[in-house]
User: Fold this.
Amino acid sequence: MALLSEIKCGKCDRKYSGIRSRCPYCGVRRVGGSGKSDEGSNNSTTKMLISIMIMALFTLGSAFLLFSTPVEADAISDPPALAENGNTITTGSLEDGNESVEGFFPPEPEPEPEPEPEPDPVESIRVRGPYGFIPNNDFTQPKGDPIRLTAVIEPEGLDVNITWESSDESIFEFAHVDGGIELLGISDGHATLTARAGDQETQVTVRISG
Assistant:
């Protein structure tokens, strides 16, 4: 079906397009509605097709404008943030009043303090003089003559504090020196010297003579 009707020339009986005002073959002018249409008038069909084409173009243009329009930034909502709060998490902001999920992020357990190592126990302590260990823990020292004494503990190498004590400071007195004490007799008589280390102690009888 042609979009435009064809006209048959009334003189030469040849067909030509209905948009022409003269016959292209014999030159006779087309007057009014003269001439014979080969297929009849198709003006209504042509108008319908043109309307359909216009509507299709309008639909395509509307769709293009719809999908090409940028979306406002406020229309896009941010995903809810996760806020850590102790051992809970809160969806969204705290002002929104959203519910919390307990136990999602449990707090890390604090490391237990390491126990302090117990010191090795002292097994024994003995007092040694300038010439070796004091026999029977009993010795005599001239008055006014100082003597240096040290304490030896077992096992060796223990880092323990050693204390000294006199039972009668009127008989003798002592002063702490590097590695032990220096004892000085001040009057005739005898007194007990005690050395302690940890849970162990030893006693030495010190006799002072003039």
Observations:
- Residues 8 and 15 are 4 Å apart (CA to CA).
- Residues 6-66 form one domain.
- The chain has three domains: 6-66, 78-106, 124-209.
- The first strand starts at residue 6 and ends at 8.
